[in-house]
Amino acid sequence: MALPPFFTPGRPGPPLPQPPAPAPFGCPPPPLPSPAFPPPLPQRPGPFPGASAPFLQPPLALQPRAPGEASRGGGGGGGGGSQCRPFLGNDAGERPRPPPPGPGPPWSPRWPEAPPPSDVLGDAALQRLRDRQWLEAVFGTPRRAGCPVPQRAPAGPNLGEVRARLRGSLRLVRRLRDLGHALHEAEADGVAWAQLHAEAQPLRAELAERLQLLTQAAYVGEARRRLERVRRRRLRLRERAREREAELEAEATRAAEREQEIDRWRVKCVQEVEEKKREQELKAAADGVLSEVRKKQADTKRMVDILRALEKLRKLRKEAAARKGVCPPASADETFEHHLQRLRKLIKKRSELYEAEERALRVMLEGEQEEERKRELEKKQRKEKEKFLLQKREIESKLFGDPDEFPLAHLLQPFRQYYLQAEHSLPALIQIRHDWDQYLVPSDHPKGNSVPQGWVLPPLPSNDIWATAIKLH
C-alpha cells in the first residue's frame, strides 16, 4: 500500500492521539450538547481530527485516492474499495494546511477563540481559565460581542400617569364647559366671543392630546388590568392583615386560656398543699392530745397501784402492831377507808373522762383515715376512668381517625357526623333510642341478647402469621 504524501520517508509521523483532557471538577463531557453541562474543552490543534482536537475544527471530508495512487505499493492491506487520505497536498514534500474552521457545534459561539496552549499560560492558569469557562457555560449565558442588545417590551401605562391624565382631562372639561356657557351668553358681543373662543382653542387641543391615549383600547385595557391587579393585591393584603389580626386574637385568647388554666392549676396545687398541711397539723394535734390522754391514763393506773400498795402496807403494819399488842382505834380505819373510797372515785371519774377523750380522738383519727382512704379510692377510680377513656379514644381513633386531626373537608366527615349526631342533638338521640327500642324483647326471650356497652372488637388472631400481619398494619 502506497503511503500518502504526508507519510513520505524522512518525515516523522503524526503524534499519537492524546486522551481528552479531564473535565473540570471531575465531570465527564456529555455525549450530546446540553446547556446544563459544559461541552468538551478545546485543545491544541493536531494534524488529524480526532481526540486530540475536539470541536476546534470540523472534521474534514474524506476523499478517495486517485487511481494511480491506488496501484502504487503493490497492494498491501487488500480491499478493492476506495481509500481515503486525511489531507490533500501539492507534492510529497509539502504538508498541507488545514482549512479554516467551520461553524462548529451549537455551543462553539460561547468560546469564539480557543484558549492558548498550556506552555504559554501554564497549567494552573489554563486550569483556572477552563474552570471559568465551565462556570460561565453552566451558570450564565454571555452575549456575543456582535449580537445586538434585545429590545425590551415597552412598559405599560403607569397608574399614577393615568390618574393624572384623567384628573387633568376632567379639569379641562370643566373649564371648557364654563367657557361654553360664557360663549353662549356672549353671542351678541363679537369681540368677547372671539376672545373666549381663542381662549378655548388651546384647551381643546390640550384635551384632545390628553384623550389621545385614553381613547386607545389597548392602553385602557392595560390600565384596567393593572388597576385590577392592584385591587386584587390590596384585597390580598387586607385579607392577610385580617388573618394576621385573627391569628393574633386567637393567640391572645389561647394565651389567656392557658393563663387561666395555669392559675386554676396553681390554686388547686395550693389548696392541695394547704389541705395536706392542715391534715398533718390536725393529725399531729390529735396525736399530741392522744399521747397526753394516754399519759394521764398511765398516771391514773399508777395512782391506783399506789393506793393498792398503800392499802397493803397499812394492812401489814396493822398486823405487825397487833402482834406487838397495839390496836389502832376503829375511827382510824374508817378515816382511812373514807380517804381510799374518795380517791378511788376521783380516779374512776378521771379514768372515764380520759377514756371518753381517747374514744373521741380515735373516732376523729379513724374518720380522717377513712377520708384519706376515700380520697385515695376516688383518685384511683379517676385514674382508672381516665385510662378507660384514653383506651376508648384510642380505639375510636383507630376505627374512625383522630378527631383532633380530622379535617372538616374530609371524605368521611358526613359519616362521622351521622354516627356522632346523638352526642350533639337531643332529637337525634331520642330518634336513635326509639329505633333501638323497636327491637326490645323480654329478658326470657330465647333469641334476645343485651346491647353491647362498648365497641365489638375483633377476636384475637388465630395464628402467629396473622398476628404478625395485624401488628404490621
From TrEMBL:
A cellular component annotation (GO) from this entry: U12-type spliceosomal complex
Domain of life: Eukaryota
Compositionally biased region (Pro residues): 11-48, 98-118
Annotated keywords: Coiled coil
Coiled-coil ranges per UniProt: 220-258, 340-387
Transmembrane annotation, as ranges: none
Annotated signal sequence range: none
Keyword Membrane: no
Positions of the UniProt region annotated as Disordered: 1-121
UniProt feature, compositional bias: Low complexity: 1-10, 49-67
Biased composition (Gly residues): 71-82
Protein name: Programmed cell death protein 7
Protein's gene: PDCD7
